[in-house]
Amino acid sequence: MKTDDLIERLARDAAVVTPLPAPGVRTATWLVWGVVYLVAMAARFFITMPHGGAVMTPLLLLQQGAALMMGITAARAAFASVVPGGDPRVRMLPAVSGAVWIALLLWGCVRDLQTLGTLGATSQSDWPCVMAIAIGGGILWLPMVVMLRRGAPLTPRATAFLGGLAALSLANIEACLMRSHEFASTVLLWHGVTLVVVASLFAWTGRRLLRWPVVEDALRR
pTM for this one? Predict the structure, then answer.
């Protein structure tokens, strides 16, 4: 086929395509769903257990702020990863936010050691929070997957991991605020391991859930 004929055919058969909103806009859209979920869970908790929940301290609020930033930056990186040619440095932002979250939890461990004389690493199990994070993360991850499928997931496992990390970070906030933790090491070990394990499971499903027909056709050829 001549080049002129190819150009004419492409121009004649081209369909109108609406570009996706910018990754930042899509992140804000997904966060609306996340905030609605957190508010609904908080309302349900305080109706059934009006005198429960964590004791609000400046350090706890800083930790939850870091967890929120980890969720936002991970969501931003996930949506940016389905845009071909995007800046790969965006994926480093969740690592920075995660490092701040871990540092604040480690500082909490130091304070526990100073005031209580122990880290309490084995004194408290936290299975209710593990279940809350896993279930809540799954609920928040589903709309993320639907939105990510509209892009071009060239790295489906990395994209699924980032999206899962974003969802689990918000679910972690719910778990921390709804249940009192005597030691910071409980959150660091139980919540941290849950985030890594469940996000890795989400990443494992990435190739199945975030399939892109163009990539699949190329692999078959």
Answer: 0.86
